Amino acid sequence: MKQVLVDTSVWSLALRKNKKDEKDNKVIEKFSKLISNLDIVIIGPIRQEILSGISDINRFNDLKSRLSIFSDFQILTRDYELASEYYNLCRGKGIQGSHIDYLICAVAINNNMSIFTLDNDFINYKKYIGIKLEK
Length: 135
Description:
By secondary structure, this protein is α/β, with parallel strands linked by helices. It has helices spanning 8-15, 22-36, 44-51, 57-67, 77-92, 99-110, 121-126; strands at 4-6, 40-41, 114-116, 132-133. The protein is built from seven helices and four strands; from the N terminus they run βααβααααβαβ. It is globular, with a radius of gyration of 15 Å. It starts with a strand and ends with a strand.
């Protein structure tokens, strides 16, 4: 079974209630297919990012409930260590990134997953880290 670690940017787009354009609809279609095929992976830090900043408690609880059907993939010490290595490597090459982005890269590499994201920073990481990006 294929496993795809879905970044916050994709979740946010899919969960937005406002009108979406054709490009957005293609992303949502791919996201829906990953869910249907049970290929989707989420980690706790992504869940936290998705739920952070929602001030309406009813919307927060609704979203938390909807996300509860997806179990968090377990993050291990080796993932945090590799994320730190990636951070140091990329920073040395002049590429800035968030700790969560590098953790996503490490979990994906350590578990032979691809990453589905709309965040162009991952294209920069890919220059130095052997991540696989979903298209």
